[in-house]
UniProtKB/TrEMBL annotation:
Classification via Pfam families: ALN_composite, Amidohydro_1
Zinc is among the record's keywords: yes
GO biological process: allantoin catabolic process; purine nucleobase catabolic process
Name used for this protein in its record: allantoinase
Pathway terms, separated by semicolons: Nitrogen metabolism; (S)-allantoin degradation; allantoate from (S)-allantoin: step 1/1
A cellular-component GO term for this protein: cytoplasm
Record-annotated membrane-spanning stretches: 7-27
Species this chain originates from: Chenopodium quinoa
Length: 499
C-alpha cells in the first residue's frame, strides 16, 4: 500500500505533464464549429499543389491558420505525422478564389441574397474571400455610418472572409472630410457608377467626382472601381422608336452598345493619368469592373497602362462563357450590364486574359428576387439586370477556359493585390491557409438536383449546363469550412477592414 502510494506520488509530475499536454492541445484546436476538422496543425497533401514556384506533389503544412511549410513528396518521409494528413490524391490544391466583385445585398435586401447564403455559396465554390459591393444593400454603403451597418450585419453570419468596398457618390465625392472618415472606417477602396445603377441611393458620378475621389484615395493608396458605361441617348431612342421586340436579346444589346463602355473609358482616361508616378493622384489606382467590350475599350485601356497609368481590368465568367447569339429569347437570367456580346468578342476577351491585358476575374454575382427577373414575361428591357453565379464561377471559368488556360494569378493573386490583402492570394509560407481542393476532370450536370447554396438557383444563368470541375473542399484560414456538400456549422469568417 505504502509502496503504491509512493509510486503514485512519484508519477504525479508525469500525470501533470500529460494533462498539460492535452490542455494545450485542446486550447490549440480550432474554436468549435468553425471547422469540419479538429486539428490546428495538419498537412494537406496532393499530387498537384499550385504554388508560386509551380505545381508540386507533396503537402502544405498548416499551423494556427497559416501555411507553415511546403513539403515536396520526396522530402516528406518521417516528417509528416500520421493521422494529421488530409489527402486529396490527384485533386488540385490551389489558393482559394478571391472574388473582388459580389453583391450580397445585406442588410436590407437579404431576400435577394444575404451574408449567410452568399458566403456559404462562396465556400461551396472554392471562394475563400469576397469583397462585397456597396450597392444593392439597403442602405447602400456610402458613409462611415452605413459601413457600420454592414459590419454589424455580417457579425457571426459569414462563412468566408469578407471585405467591403464603399460607394463613391455625388454626396460624398466632393466632401474630402467625409470620404476620409469613410476610408478610415475600413472600406478597402471605393466604387462608382458612370451610368444609373438602378438603386436610388446610389446615384452616378461624373468625371469631376471621380477625379476628386482619386485624389483622396491617393493618400490611402486604395483603388477606385468603376462601372464604366455612360448613357448614350441614340441607342435607347432607336430601340424605342422602332418598337423592337423586348423578348429578343439583340434588342437589349442595341440599348447598350460597346460605344457606351468606350465613351466612359475615354472620359476616365482624362483623369487616370493623375495616378502615374509623380502625378497628383499617385498612389490611387483605377480598376475597371466587368469589362465586356474587348475592342476599342480594351485598346484604350491597354495604351493607358503602357503610358504608366495605374489601371487594372477585370472581366467575369459570363462574358467568357456565353455569347449573345446563344441567349434564348426571353431568357432574362442572362441580362446584365454591360451586356454579353458576340462570339468574336468572347474570343478576344480570352486572348486578352491570357495575354495579361485583362488582369483578373470576378463573379459580379448580382442576384435579385426571381420576380424581378420577369422570367415568364421574358422582357429584356424591363427585367432586373445581374447574373447569379457565385457558387459556380470556378467550374464555369474552367469549363470554357481550360482550352485557353486559366491561372491562379487571375483568380487569387491579383485580386488580393487589388483589395490590399498581403497575406492572401497564394499558397506561400506565412500566408493564410486559404485553400481550395478541386477535381478539374470531374463533370457534373448543374440541374435542379445539384445542391446550390445561393438563395435563388432558378435565376442562375448556369442552371441546366454541364460543367467541369468539382470543388471538394474549401479551407479559410486553416478552417475546413466546406467538404463535399457539408458546411462547418459556425460562421467564423473574418471581416477584412483596411487600416
Ligand atoms: N445594381 C447592380 O447590381 N448592378 C450590377 N448589375 C449588372 N452587372 O448587371 C452591376 O455590377 O452593375
Ligand atoms: Zn456594374
Ligand atoms: Zn456588380
Amino acid at each position: 500500500m505504502e509502496f503504491q502510494k509512493r509510486s503514485f506520488f512519484s508519477l504525479l509530475p508525469v500525470i501533470a505533464s500529460i494533462l498539460l499536454f492535452f490542455l494545450k492541445f485542446s486550447l490549440k484546436t480550432a474554436p468549435s464549429g468553425c471547422s469540419l476538422l479538429h486539428h490546428n496543425h495538419y498537412w494537406i497533401s496532393s499530387k498537384r499543389i499550385v504554388t508560386q514556384d509551380g505545381v508540386i506533389s507533396g503537402a502544405v503544412e498548416i499551423k494556427d491558420g497559416k501555411v507553415f511549410s511546403l513539403v515536396k513528396e520526396e522530402d516528406w518521409h518521417g516528417y509528416i505525422r500520421k493521422g494529421q494528413i488530409v489527402d486529396f490524391g490527384e485533386a488540385v490544391v490551389m489558393p482559394g478564389l478571391i472574388d473582388v466583385h459580389a453583391h450580397l445585398d445585406d442588410p436590407g435586401r437579404e431576400e435577394w441574397e444575404g451574408f449567410p447564403s452568399g458566403t456559404r455559396a462562396a465556400a461551396a465554390g472554392g471562394i475563400t474571400t469576397l469583397i462585397d459591393m456597396p450597392l444593392n444593400s439597403e442602405p447602400s454603403t456610402v458613409s462611415e455610418e452605413t459601413l457600420k451597418l454592414k459590419i454589424n450585419a455580417s457579425k457571426n453570419r459569414i462563412f468566408v472572409d469578407v471585405g467591403f468596398w464603399g460607394g463613391l457618390v455625388p454626396d460624398n465625392a466632393l466632401n474630402a472630410t467625409a470620404l476620409e472618415r469613410f476610408l478610415r472606417a475600413g472600406v478597402l477602396g471605393l466604387k462608382s457608377f458612370m451610368c444609373p445603377s438602378g438603386i436610388n441611393d446610389f446615384p452616378m458620378t461624373n468625371i469631376t467626382h471621380i477625379k476628386e475621389g482619386l485624389s483622396v484615395l491617393a493618400k490611402f493608396k486604395r483603388p477606385l472601381l468603376v462601372h464604366a458605361e455612360v448613357q448614350l441617348d441614340i441607342a435607347d431612342k432607336s430601340v424605342k422608336d422602332d418598337n423592337k421586340d423586348a423578348r429578343l436579346y439583340s434588342t437589349y444589346l442595341e440599348t447598350r452598345p460597346p460605344s457606351m463602355e468606350e465613351a466612359a473609358i475615354r472620359d476616365l482616361l482624362t483623369v487616370s493619368e493623375n495616378t502615374r508616378v509623380g502625378g497628383p493622384a499617385e498612389g490611387a489606382h483605377l480598376h475597371i469592373v466587368h469589362l465586356s467590350d474587348a475592342q476599342s475599350s480594351l485598346n484604350l485601356l491597354k495604351n493607358a497602362k503602357a503610358r504608366g497609368d495605374s489601371i487594372s481590368i477585370e472581366t467575369c465568367p459570363h462574358y467568357l462563357s456565353f455569347s449573345a447569339d446563344e441567349i434564348p429569347d426571353g431568357d432574362t437570367r442572362f441580362k446584365c450590364a454591360p451586356p454579353i456580346r458576340d462570339a468574336e468578342n468572347k474570343e478576344k476577351l480570352w486572348e486578352a486574359l491570357r495575354g495579361g491585358d485583362i488582369d483578373m476575374l470576378s463573379s459580379d454575382h448580382s442576384p435579385a428576387l426571381p420576380d424581378l427577373k420577369l422570367l415568364q414575361q421574358g422582357d429584356f428591357l424591363k427585367a432586373w439586370g445581374g447574373i447569379s453565379s457565385l457558387q459556380y464561377v470556378l467550374p464555369a471559368t474552367w469549363t470554357s477556359g481550360r482550352k485557353y488556360g486559366v491561372t491562379f494569378e487571375q483568380w487569387s493573386e491579383k485580386p488580393a493585390k487589388l483589395a490590399g490583402l498581403p497575406l492572401k492570394g497564394s499558397i506561400a509560407v506565412g500566408n493564410y491557409a486559404d485553400i481550395v481542393a478541386w477535381e478539374p476532370e470531374t463533370d457534373f450536370d448543374l440541374d435542379q438536383n445539384h445542391p446550390s447554396y445561393f438563395k435563388h438557383p432558378s435565376i442562375s444563368a448556369y442552371m441546366g449546363r454541364k460543367l467541369s470541375g468539382k470543388v471538394l473542399a474549401t479551407f479559410v484560414r486553416g478552417n475546413l469550412v466546406y467538404k463535399e456538400g457539408k458546411h462547418a456549422p459556425a460562421a467564423c469568417g473574418n471581416r477584412l477592414l483596411a487600416t
